[in-house]
Amino acid sequence: MTGYGRGVVEREDVRATVEVRSVNHRFLDMKLRGAALPAAVEDGIASRVRGALERGAVSVSVHLAGRAHGLRIDSDAASRAHRMLADLAARLAIPGPDLALVLAQPGVVTTGEAAELDGGDRPAVTRAAVIGALDAALAQLDGMRQAEGSALAMDLHARLDEMVASSARIAALAAGAPHHIARRLTERVKRLLEEAELDHRGEDPAVRRERDARIAQEVALLADRADITEELVRLASHLDQARALLGSEGPVGRRLDFLVQEIGRELNTIGAKSTTAEIGTAIVGAKATLEKVREQVQNIE
């Protein structure tokens, strides 16, 4: 999931600025940039990030500076400015410069700049400032990821509802599978007999009964092999669990990832057992929807 956060914290004379950026990634991959920091501070940053995030390529940028020291007056520059202005006023025969005019001249009044700091100069103060700024940045980042997660959840709910409808359609088609198999096998036997130009008008009833019994047995075997009741039950369970996870609190990405794999496995098995073109078409549609779900699940915390 994507997001950005920035935090600034001052502790004594140290100001820490931390920026955290996160983009989609299947696992948690953190990179630390910026100021050189003591190992203890780096460990603290890594621990905070792992505690707040489970997935994402995360970039943490740390900048340290000393606190600015306010305004400073350059006396030499003020003297030079006053002398030059007084000489000009004398030549023009006007009153000499006042203090406000002197202070307004470039270089007379300066602002103390914040000095760059080495993170190892004040380890305890540095750690407090950096961790405080990091916590503020992670809070902002979490807000953005929460908003994105809500949008993703709505999209996934819609796609899982599509798959539930596909599952119901497949179950309805599968209910007529034994009849379809029996009709297809009977027609095939009849066609073979016709091709052999056999006349069954004088066929022994016992032979006919035996043939019909064998056909019924073959139909039962084929129907059993094509039975997808167990797969449909598991598929429905996986879909229900996935929809329930979307409404739960806390990280759910890895569990959803597992359920997506199991849903795909059940669809593959049903497709392998399918006996009608209609079921095959429904499976293709369900797999297309599942692939979109799989892509989105990779982005979920």
In N-to-C order, the SSE pattern is: EEEHEEHHEHHHHHH
Separate helix tally? 9
Major sheet:
4 strands, mixed
Percent of residues in helices: 55-70%
Average pLDDT works out at: 81
Total count of domains? 3
Compute the separation of the termini in Å.
Answer: 7 Å
Morphology call: rod-shaped
Give the neighbour order of strands across the main sheet: 1-2-4-3
Number of strands: 6
Strand content: 5-15%
User: Uncertain regions: pLDDT < 50 for 5+ in a row?
Assistant: 112-116
- Rg computed from alpha carbons, rounded to a whole number of angstroms: 38 Å
Q: Pairing-aware structural class of the strands and helices?
A: alpha+beta
Write the layout of secondary structure elements.
Blueprint: E1 3-11, E2 14-23, E3 28-34, H1 39-52, E4 56-66, E5 71-73, H2 75-92, H3 99-103, E6 109-111, H4 123-175, H5 177-195, H6 205-225, H7 229-246, H8 253-273, H9 277-297
Parallel strand pairs: 3-4
Antiparallel strand pairs: 1-2, 2-4, 5-6
Structural commentary:
The longest helix is centred in the middle third of the chain and has 53 residues, at 123-175. The chain is rod-shaped. It contains nine helices and six strands. The strands form two sheets. A four-stranded mixed sheet has the order 1-2-4-3, with helices on one face. Strands 5-6 form a two-stranded antiparallel ribbon. It is α+β, with helices and mostly antiparallel strands and 301 residues long. The protein has three domains: 3-67 and 114-147, Ribosomal Protein S5, domain 2 (2-Layer Sandwich), CATH 3.30.230.10; 71-111, no CATH class; 149-297.
